[in-house]
Amino acid sequence: MSQSQRAVYPIEIAGIYRELPLFEVQAGLKIAILNILGDTELVTACAKALNEKLASRNYDVIVTAEAKSIPLAHALSQTSQKPYVVLRKQYRSYMGKTIQAETVSITTGRPQQLFLDEKDHELVWGEKVILIDDVISTGSTLEGMSVIARKANAEVTGMAAILTEGDQNQWAEIVSLGHLPLFTD
């Protein structure tokens, strides 16, 4: 099926219009896919909008998980003038002694590890952090990031995403720019 034949979900995020393609991730369940990689216009607008919404939060460091939310963390870092840390999904020997946690993503459906690189321990240790993701679906990645923050003696002072997905009431504490429904057959 070509992109032009695929069903889409139209949405405006931070003043930018996009059509998100729908993909089946489980039998009878489709989700709208937000892929911000390479979408500089959307990333910049979302970073500015999230920075405004997070202005009242007290935080020192932005924490995100690889990979799709890295551009957002980078842009938010530039906008807020706060450093950011990326939790990796694969361990490499150059990462040294890591802090880790397990997550299960809605898109992969299987357990994954998150690793805080040894070089980033000092940046996060004892600091106030904001957890950032592109889309929060099940909360598993957020929980993994929270576990790592606790292990790093950091205080999570907020959680933010471009979009939340699924049961909107479940995400009342999340600072976001919009919400996506789940699509069932």
Query: Looking at the structure, what is the overall shape?
Result: globular
The helix/strand order is EEEHEHEEEHEHEEEE
> Helix share of residues?
10-25%
Give the CATH architecture: 3-Layer(aba) Sandwich
> Briefly, what CATH class?
Alpha Beta
Provide a brief overview of the structure:
With 185 residues, the chain is an alpha/beta fold.
Name some characteristics of this structure:
alpha/beta; 4-stranded antiparallel sheet; globular; 22% helix; 185 residues; 4 helices; Rossmann fold; 6-stranded parallel sheet
Description:
The chain has 185 residues and is an alpha/beta fold. It has a single domain, classed as Rossmann fold (3-Layer(aba) Sandwich), CATH 3.40.50.2020. The protein has helices at residues 40-53, 70-80, 121-124, 140-151, and strands at residues 8-13, 16-26, 29-32, 61-65, 84-87, 99-104, 111-116, 128-136, 155-165, 175-176, 179-180, 183-184. Strands 4, 5, 8, 9, 10 and 11 form a 6-stranded parallel β-sheet that branches. β2 and β3 form a beta hairpin. The longest helix is centred in the N-terminal third of the chain and has 14 residues, at 40-53.
